[in-house]
Amino acid sequence: MNNSSANINRGEQKTKSASVWIMLAVAICFEISGAIGLRFSEGFSLLLPAVFALASFALALYLVSQVMQYLPISIAYPMWAGGGTAGVAVLGFLMLGEAITLLKLSGVILIIIGVVMINRVSEKKSGC
After folding, report:
1. What's the CA gap between 40 and 97, in Å, rounded?
2. For residue 99, what are the contacts with CB-CB under 8 A and spacing of at least 6?
3. Which has the closest alpha carbon to 118: 85, 74, 88, 63?
4. N or C: which end of the chain has fewer CB within 10 A?
5. For 43, which DSSP code?
6. Helix, strand, or coil here: 126?
7. Per-residue model confidence (pLDDT) at position 8
């Protein structure tokens, strides 16, 4: 492989790497929107919010399954689950008027720290 081919391959790998992380972020957003949809579905008794929640969760699962082709499960799943959990908690505080207690805030901060720590120390398969 000549030098220009190696540079092209590195460029393609960086593009794929960025795409995988963007796909994971979008999966997290769909997971959050699914949870918010559940909140408004009133136990699946309201059709539109229930369908919205199911569609959001289905898209989130599809996207995270695609991400897992490039990232190890030990990175992809905790980031997806932790990011979704923290995101839902923050939206609950900001948009739904849920009480912010020191214990809840500490829990969200610990989730974020845990996700960052897992990402920093986990073995990566794709060069991401």
Report:
1. 14
2. none
3. 74
4. N
5. T
6. coil
7. 44
